[in-house]
Structures are given as structure tokens and as C-alpha cells.
Amino acid sequence: MGTKVIAIGNILMCDDGVAVRVCENIKDSLAKNNIEVIIGETDFEYCLSNIEDGDFIFIIDAINSGKEVGEITIFPLKSKLYPGLSQHGCSLVDLVLLYNNSINGFVIGIEVKEIKFDFNLSDEINKKLGEIEKQVEKIITKKVFLK
């Protein structure tokens, strides 16, 4: 039982991989606070296999809700608002809630510019990546210490 951050997204699809990039860059800092980072990408079974009853989790994903690129939105894990904003939301969040009733936490959505076949993040996300990383890390550590 612990605190885990799960990064989902496809790094081959431009900004869809932003959560993976962010979490790769902050995982060492989070580890200092005993927060485990799981780079799940699109392998939901792998993500589920790393979640235990009683865990407090953060699922980080790209979203497209029409807000400013790089803006971060936080949803309670059990919120019904998140799944329609991400191509991964229904899959992982629904499975977590279906199989792990004792799981609590949040989904952190990062507003993206474009999702298309490209190995790189968009210029807009790349310019804001450092600030996005700081915000995501701050949100996670603040929520962990308040739980």
C-alpha cells in the first residue's frame, strides 16, 4: 500500500505522450517522498498489475478540453467528468474503479495541442514542459501530504 503516479499516453503520438515525458523527468524527485512512478504508456494491464488495494494513485494523462495548452486540470479518481476528455480515460480509470474499490486518488489532465503521429511533443507543449513538470509535482506532493 502506497502512493503511486501512473503516466499513460502514447509517446509516438505527439502530445499524447506528455504525461510519460513529465513523469520521466520528475520520478527521481517524487521517489525522495516515497512516491512510486509507473510509466504505463498504453499498457493498462501493466498499470493495473502495479496497483494494490489501499493505494493512493495519481493517473497523469493528456486531455483535450479546449483550455489553454499546458493547463492542468485535476479530477477526483471517481469523477464522471474525466473519461470523455482523454482517449485513455475510460480504459484505465474504469478498470481501476471496477477492480479496486479501496483505491483513492486523482486524475491529472494536461491540456495538449495536437495528437498525431510524431515522435516529438508539439512546440507549444515543449516550451511549457518545465513549468508543467513543476505544477504536476507540486500538485502531487501537496495532495499526498494532505491525505
Produce a short descriptive summary.
With 147 residues, this protein is of the alpha/beta class. It contains four helices and five strands; from the N terminus they run E-H-E-H-E-E-H-E-H. The chain is globular.
Describe the structure.
There is one protein chain. 37% of the residues lie in helices and 23% in strands. It is of the alpha/beta class. A 5-stranded mixed beta sheet has the order 2-1-3-5-4. Helix 1 crosses helix 4. It is globular, with a radius of gyration of 14 Å.
Keywords, separated by commas or semicolons:
4 helices; 147 residues; five-stranded mixed sheet; 23% strand
Give the overall pLDDT as a whole number: 89
- Residue runs with pLDDT of under 50 for 5 or more positions: none
Proportion of helical residues: 25-40%
Shape: globular
Topology:
Elements: E1 3-8, H1 18-31, E2 35-41, H2 44-49, E3 56-63, E4 72-76, H3 89-99, E5 104-111, H4 123-146
Parallel strand pairs: 1-2, 1-3, 3-5
Antiparallel strand pairs: 4-5
